[in-house]
């Protein structure tokens, strides 16, 4: 969602984006629905990337001013499930 919004909005001839988030590495486990408690840890459901507060997620560069990219970076920040700013 983030990558798609930024790549659609930026001009690839004049701008570039550096993604500062590593690939998902933390497994999230879950037991099946209706399963009784106990029986050990559930199977891996999906992987996530933990992001600490104050960390850069994406960096924009190239021949662009902040005012040019602020609009779509604000849109991306609003869509995220945590407080973020452009």
UniProtKB/TrEMBL annotation:
<comment type="similarity">
    <text>Belongs to the universal ribosomal protein uL16 family.</text>
</comment>
<dbReference type="GO" id="GO:0015934">
    <property type="term" value="C:large ribosomal subunit"/>
</dbReference>
<dbReference type="InterPro" id="IPR036920">
    <property type="entry name" value="Ribosomal_uL16_sf"/>
</dbReference>
<dbReference type="GO" id="GO:0003735">
    <property type="term" value="F:structural constituent of ribosome"/>
</dbReference>
<keyword id="KW-0689">Ribosomal protein</keyword>
<dbReference type="Pfam" id="PF00252">
    <property type="entry name" value="Ribosomal_L16"/>
</dbReference>
<dbReference type="GO" id="GO:0006412">
    <property type="term" value="P:translation"/>
</dbReference>
<dbReference type="InterPro" id="IPR016180">
    <property type="entry name" value="Ribosomal_uL16_dom"/>
</dbReference>
<keyword id="KW-0687">Ribonucleoprotein</keyword>
<dbReference type="GO" id="GO:0019843">
    <property type="term" value="F:rRNA binding"/>
</dbReference>
<dbReference type="InterPro" id="IPR000114">
    <property type="entry name" value="Ribosomal_uL16_bact-type"/>
</dbReference>
<protein>
    <recommendedName>
        <fullName>Large ribosomal subunit protein uL16m</fullName>
    </recommendedName>
</protein>
<dbReference type="InterPro" id="IPR047873">
    <property type="entry name" value="Ribosomal_uL16"/>
</dbReference>
